[in-house]
């Protein structure tokens, strides 16, 4: 059922000029540009139930990347990052981030990604008044979503990114409406609402009391942690997985006999699936949250096992 | 009322130009054909605005049920009581509509192509047995009246108390914790904060 519509989507892309080699070189340029190019612009973000507009300023000087992001409508969510490390943020936006990995983990790596995604050049386009090249990022299996990327012909930065499910339905839109490589340096300074955050840095933690019996190909454990439950005195185990592009989190909270049913919901690209599983220590609610298809999330949730060793793939 | 007049009223309701008495006239009667037309209009509007809507959800049926319990305003009533009655009708309609909004936002993602589907038979009452959950992005729809109308059982509340926090933790960790490219994951995280 799921595979058939996927072929329809891929078929549509195949019928356009497919220049895989060019697409890979564009992906390579994109990976470089994100750490080397100064720019500013405004963009919109849209998903099911949400539409917002934002401004971004990024300055790269002597290898130091300074970036400020500011939501332009509603509450002014703001964050300033230096070399990817958060310097300040508005209250809610960073409330859940208490520590960061000391290493630059998930850089875009087109070579590694090409094992799980196929890159195709599908044509020319124009975004934010600038000529762009449109690429299809097609998943090689049903366990991840595809993208349509529109890269600026001049800088190779993404001016537009559409996430699509296996039926070709749009899950989210990220699109610049204004983009410039001339940057107003004064705008790099945070506003007073941006509160300094000190986030402890640590190495990625790959040990937890949990492991997954099954993972979609290409997904690796990125980090693990334990936190107090948002609603009880229990401790919640958190595991984070990624394939280099898509990510999902797994939360495990002991139920201690509570009568809770399974649940599932989807907000644009983000799915949340809760499944009750039995362990020697009583029932546990496993919740998988991430930008992966529902069926994949369900299978991951049902595959979580207690055990000292984390299965590495 | 003639068929044409009813459909004209329906258009007025769709354009938010009808007063509550016109809305009552539209929805109070047991008129499945009219309700089907209402559903089609809703779908057409949703498709035009590229809104996502659940076609199987019949808000009109819930509104009709609310109206059935209300006594129709009588012309001989004194003005004060009349307007009070109108207020009560308006309030119950609001609750029914809010509950509907809350329900269809909980449904799985559905593209504009939903508009191509034929409207299904109505679901008159919000179903709380599916284990629905309210996520952070939708907290504004889960205001007090909707909460009361949907009457969330403790079973669902377990998820409602946790999922918003889990979703935010996932989004913020993905955006800020490992020095990766940040504009798109930042926007995703910010979209979970909308109030």
UniProtKB/TrEMBL annotation, chain A:
Pfam family, one: MucB_RseB
Alphabetized InterPro entries for the sequence: MucB/RseB_C (IPR033436), MucB/RseB_N (IPR033434), MucB_RseB (IPR005588)
Leader peptide range in chain numbering: 1-20
Domain annotation MucB/RseB N-terminal: ranges: 22-187
Lineage: superkingdom: Bacteria
Annotated Gene Ontology cellular component terms: outer membrane-bounded periplasmic space
Coiled-coil annotated residue ranges, if any: none
Limits of the MucB/RseB C-terminal domain: 207-305
Spans through the membrane: none
A Gene Ontology biological process term: regulation of polysaccharide biosynthetic process
Cited Gene3D superfamilies: Lipoprotein localisation LolA/LolB/LppX
Subcellular location, record wording: Periplasm
CDD domains the UniProt entry points to: RseB
Keywords, ordered alphabetically: Periplasm, Signal
Protein family according to the UniProt entry: Belongs to the RseB family.
Name of the protein in question: RNA polymerase subunit sigma
Species whose genome carries this gene: Pseudomonas songnenensis
Phylogenetic lineage: Bacteria, Pseudomonadati, Pseudomonadota, Gammaproteobacteria, Pseudomonadales
From TrEMBL, chain B:
Gene3D superfamilies (UniProt xref): Anti sigma-E protein RseA, N-terminal domain (1.10.10.880)
Chief site of localization: membrane
Protein localization: Cell membrane
Keywords: Cell membrane, Membrane, Transmembrane, Transmembrane helix
The Anti sigma-E protein RseA N-terminal domain, residue ranges: 7-76
Annotated Low complexity bias: 139-153
Start-end of Basic and acidic residues biased regions: 154-163
UniProt record similarity statement: Belongs to the RseA family.
This protein's name: RNA polymerase subunit sigma
Organism listed in the record: Pseudomonas songnenensis
